[in-house]
Amino acid sequence: MQVNKWKGNRREIGEDFFETPSSAILPIKKYIPDGVKIILEPTHGKGAISNLLEEWGYTVIKQDKYPKTDDTTEADFLTDDIPDCDMIVFNPPFSLKTEFLARACKSGKPFLFISPITVMETRTRFHIFQKHELSVLNLPNRTNFNNEHKKVFFHSVWIMRHPEYKNQIVYADTPEKEKAKMALEKRKLRLKKSAAEIPKSV
Fold first, then answer.
1. Residue 81, Cα to own-chain centre: how many angstroms?
2. Which comes out higher in pLDDT, residue 96 or 141?
3. Residue 151 phi/psi, 5° resolution?
4. What CATH fold (topology level) applies to the domain 14-196?
5. Closest Cα to residue 145, out of 77, 48, 75, 53?
6. Model confidence over 19-32: pLDDT tens digits?
7. Average pLDDT, the chain
């Protein structure tokens, strides 16, 4: 009798879980359209994407087919109704990238999702990209899912449906530029907080 070496792990149940590192999430901030307030994260996992979105001030609806946190609602993005939201941001199971891509397009909402660059292959996905005028946000480095120090063999990109970017390839800022931006934002927040603490003269 042959032993199923995938018994009990994510391949058997179709979970296909690879957590997104913050270095791959930071570049999407500038590509979230103006006016977006509520974002659906249908593959919440342990909250890597949701946590940053909340830090940026967005309200996040956290869903997952296999919930891993107490604040996650169990829901299947491919079959369940999509809740009211302004945008969808997620890291889909890579083995189901075509299905997630089609479902996101069908929603009619702006979206961003990260995937291996092979998402641009195949005739089916070619036509989805063409029909919905999708764009690609190219990252400067390979994304080391789960472990920042473990190298991966594939390159990842963000696929986006955005009212201002159609049929384009755009290039993310380098990590050094992102860090400089974050440092500047933190400095502005500190100055704002300090100014608020200065007693006003009567």
1. 20
2. 96
3. -75, 145
4. Rossmann fold (3.40.50)
5. 48
6. 888 888 999 999 99
7. 85
DSSP assignment of the chain, as one string? ----TTTTSHHHHT----PPPHHHHGGGGGGSPTT--EEEETT-TTSHHHHHHHHTT-EEEEEESS--STTPEE--TTTSPPPS-SEEEE---GGGHHHHHHHHHHHTS-EEEEEEGGGG-SHHHHHHHHHHT-EEEE-SS---SS-TTS--SS-EEEEEEBTTB-S-EEEPPPHHHHHHHHHHHHHHHHHHHHHHHSPPP-
pLDDT digits (tens, 9 = 90+) for 107-151: 999 999 999 999 999 999 999 999 999 999 999 877 766 655 556
β-pair partners for 73: 63
